[in-house]
Amino acid sequence: MKIGIDARMFGPTVGGGGLGRYVEQLVTELQANDHKNRYVLFLKKENIHACKITNPNFEKRLADIHWYTLEEQLTFGRIVDRESLDIIHFPHWNVPVALKTPFIVTIHDLILLEEPHSSKVTTRNIFVFLLKYFGYKLVLSHAIRASKKIIAVSHATADVIQRFFPTIAKDKIDIQYEGVTPLPSLSQSFPISASHNLLYIGNAYPHKNLERLLEAFAIIQQTHPDTELTLAGTESTFYKRLLAKSRDHVTFVPNPTDKKLTELLKQTTLFVFPSRIEGFGLPPLEAMHAGVPVAASDIPSLREILDDSAVFFPPNNPTEIARAITDILDHPTRRKELIAHGLEHIKRFSWKTMAINIASLYETCGKETP
Predict the structure, then answer these.
(1) Which one of 87, 133, 199, 345 is least enclosed by Cβ atoms within 10 Å?
(2) Overall pTM > 0.85
């Protein structure tokens, strides 16, 4: 079979955090484990050289078209169709509506449907936002209805898909958990700080709920004045807005490399993940892999993915967030228990297993195509 992958989001630097990591690890593990099928990877100029070919059955194509654009809708589909593929995998919902090639799509979340009226979700003029929001719903609906198969990254995401698209057959949705990427090890050691260090890794979109985290941190400092909070993520207007309201003992690390993330995790007492909505939740799993205890929002996806290896709090209540965090800070034995549970828990998640299962879906769907 000849299989395509929209790899334009390859790598966390270009693709942005979890999506970029997902594409990177999918491509890496498919190259390591599928020596039967042929693959065409569509990449941007920013990552075409970063994506290394290690399997002779894989080849690259330059498709320097940015996602969520009119050009993507008008041009990218024609580029894909010229390859005469049996199937193509879109790792996100942004599928060209006029595409003729059969496709599989991964749905990570439906955040813009779950939080449709938040005025803070855009930095654009409201009329431009509404136009783009209409386009989003059109393209998303097409991706879900026209796909041969929908890959959901969790049961929670599958439930949300069914809620918004109740006519979609349950057997069209295939749940495939993501894996955990070990961050690079560092040769140097770091001094143990006398203060407590809290860490969040991710973007600052409104659903990430960082405003409530800052409110909780203000409460924590009343009884734990030496506590430090570090926010690490892609520099953006959303972070600038947030940091304008921040206070002492809050540090922002923009655009961290994997090496920098390792350094931050080595100095962290507790990883905090306060999102109101998530499809999967890679950062807390990566924190567990680094031996850091996790406190996270009590929402369906994080309950499912983190299970009993984290402490949970109601995301919209700063007082309860602060109480959950200080309880862990004040009990070193509890932190050690969470670290042990986390290191055992992450063994459930494998990029290799995910890629092998997805490759099987390619073959099944490709053979069904007339």
Answers:
(1) 133
(2) yes
